[in-house]
# Entry
Amino acid sequence: MTPPNQQRLWRFHGGLHLPDNKAQSLGRELTQATVPQRLILPLQQHIGEEDKPLVAVGERVLKGQMIARSKAYISAPIHAPTSGTVASIGPEPIPHPSGLVATCIVIEPDGEDAWAELPEPMDDYQQRDRADLRERVRWAGIVGLGGAAFPTSVKLNPGPNVRIKTLIINGAECEPYITCDDMLMRTRAPRIVSGIKILKHLLEVEECLIGIEDNKPVAIAAMRQAVTDAGLQKTRVVTIPTLYPSGGEKQLIHILTGKEVPSHAIPAQIGVVCHNVGTTAAIADAVLEGKPLLSRIVTLTGDGVAEPRNLEALIGTPVSDLIAQAGGYTNAVYKLILGGPMMGIALHTDAVPLTKAANCLLVASREEAPDPSPVRPCIRCGECARVCPVSLLPQQMYWYARAKDFDKVQAYNLFDCIECGCCSHVCPAHLPLVQFYRFAKNEIWAQEEEKRKAEQARQRHEARQARLERLERERKAKLRKKKEALEKKKGAGGKEQDAKKAAIEAAMKRVAEKKAAAAAPKNTEGLTPAQQRQVDNAEARRRAAETEGEQEK
Amino acid sequence: MLTLTPILAITGLALVFGLLLGYSNIRFHVEGDPIADQIDALLPQTQCGQCGFPGCRPYAEAIATGEAEINRCVPGGETVIIALADLLGRDPLPLDADVGEPKPKAVAVIDENECIGCTLCLQACPVDAIIGAAKQMHTVVRDLCTGCELCVPPCPVECIHMEPIKEDIRTWRWPYPEVEFEPAREATA
# Structure
C-alpha cells in the first residue's frame, strides 16, 4: 500500500534531462518593479479575438479600470495597471516572433495609483452561482499565465455534459532558467491554495493534484504547509521527477493520472482540467478581492543581465525598464529571449512591453544561446523520435514539411506537436525541426482560411447569379405582359387609332409645309451682280455672327 | 438445336445486361459534371475573369471539356496549377503568359470623398461585396472582397483603388526555414 502522500506516477515517452539553470535567478528576493514612465498594453495578449479599446486618447483612467474588451467568447479584457492618462492608441512594437508592430494602448501613469471602483469581493463564493464566478474570472481578464495565454474563463466552462474528476495545478515549471512559478509558490502558497478552493468549487471536483518538479524543494514544502493549513481534503502536492517537458499540460496529466489526452482532444474530455499556479493565484485575487489581472511575476535571468532575479511587474512595463531594475545589461549580452531557451522567441528590441503571457526574459550570452550550428542532411538516426514527448515521428514530419506535402505531414499528427524543441535539441544534424513544424502549421491554417474564403465567395457569386437571372426573368415577364396588353388594346380599338394617326400625320405635314415656306428666302430671282454680292456679304456676316454666338455659349 | 442454344444464351445475356445498363443510366443519373465540380472546388473563386472565362465555374467547365489549359488561373498561381494537375493526372505547366502576372493579394477600397454614388461598381462586383445605392456613398466590405479588380474600370471618377493586404500579426506566417547544408568533407585517406 502506498502512503497517503505518495502517489503512483507514470512516465511519458521521451523527454530530456537538461541543466536547469534556475539557481541564478533564485538568489535574490522577489521584488516589486517600479511603475514605468509609459505602460504599453497590446490589444491582443491572449489566444482568440483581439480586444477593442474602451477609452479614448487623453482620457484619464484609474487602476483596475477596464480599457479594452471583445465581445467574442474566446477573449480576455485588459485593465489599466495603474492610474494615469491614455497617451496614445496605435502601433507599437510587441513581443512577437515576426517583430511586427500591433495596436497598443499607451498609458502615462500619474503616480497616484488611484483605484477604480472594483466589484465586491465574493468571500461567500461557495453560495454563489457558478456562472457568476466564471463571469468574475472573465471580467478579471485572466489568461493562462504559464505561457499559452488561453482565456481561463473558457477553460472553467467544460460544458453541460462533461464531468470533471481531477483538477491539476501545474507547478512543474520544467523549462530551464524560468523560476517565476517557483518564486510564486515560495512566497504566496496560501493565495494559490485559496485559488484551488475556488476552482474545486467551480468545477465541482473532489480530487486535486498539485504537480511540482523535485528540483523545487522549498516550493514543495511551502505548498504542502499551505494545503495542510487550509485543511483541504483530497488535495495532494505531488513531487514529480525533473524531466523536460513535464510541465506541458498533456505530459503533466499523463505523469499524475496515467491518462493520455487523445489527439485533437482537450483534457476536459477525459475528466481533467489543468491550471497553472500563477493563474490559480490570479483567480483568488479576482474572486476574493475583486481585483483584475494587473501584474505578474517575471524571471529576468541569463549571463547578459547583472542581477538575475524575479520581479513582480505591471503588465505593459517595457522590457528595457525591467532589465534596468535587474542591474542592467552586462557585456556578455548577446540575445534577448522571451520565455525559456527551449520554447522562447527571440526579441528584436527591448522596447516591447511585458504581456500577460511573459514568464521569463532570458538575457542570454553567446554561450547560453549559441548561433545555430551548420546543418547537415538528416541521416535518419531516429534520436528525435526517441525524445519526442508526444511519441511522434519528427523526422518523417520534417521530410514532408520540407517538401511542403501538407496532407502527409498532417497524417503524421503534426497538430499534436507541442513545439517543445526536444527533437531539434538532440538532432546531430542540427536541423531546425521546430521551425519546419511551425511553418507547416501556419501554411495549413492559411490554406484552410483561404478555402473557407473561396467557399464564401463561391456561394455569394452563385447567389448573385441566381438573383440576376431571377430579375431578368421578371423583367421579361413584365415586358411580355405589357406587349400582350397593348396588342389586345390595338385589336379592340384599331379603327379609332387609325383615324387618330391620320389626323396627326396631316397636322405634321401642314407644319412642315409652313416651316419650309417661312424659311425660304424671297425676291432672289433676277438680281444684278452687285445685288448678288451684297446678299452674299450679308449672308457671310450672319454666318460669322452665328458661329461666334455659339462659341460664346 | 446445338447451334441455337449458344445464340439464344448470348442474346439473352445481351438483353439482360442491356436492360440493366439502361436502368442504371436512369436510376443513377448524375446531374451536372462531377469533374467540373471538383475542379471548381480547387479554384480560388475570385471570379476575376483573368482566365478569359466569365468566372471560376465556366473556367472549371472549360477545363473539364478540354477547351482550356490548367494554367490560366492568375490568383491561384502555382498552387492551383499543381492541384489541378494532380486531380486530372496531367503535367503541371507554368502560368500562361497571356493571362497576366500574379500580383500580391489586395482588396478594393473606395475613396469615399470622391464617390458619386453611380452604382456601376455594385453591378460589376461578382460577389456583392460593395454596398450602396443610387446617389448614396458606396463602400467595399473588406472581408468579402476577393480582389478581382472588376470594379476598378467601370468607376467614372476613378475613386476605386486596390490596396495590397498589409502583413500584421494576424496574417504573418512563420517563413520556410532556409536550410543550407554544410558541404560534405572530403575523405582524408
Summary: Residues 338 and 361 of chain A are 5 Å apart (CA to CA). The two ends of chain A are 112 Å apart (CA to CA). Chain A touches chain B through 35 residues (CB under 8 Å). The first strand of chain A starts at residue 31 and ends at 32.
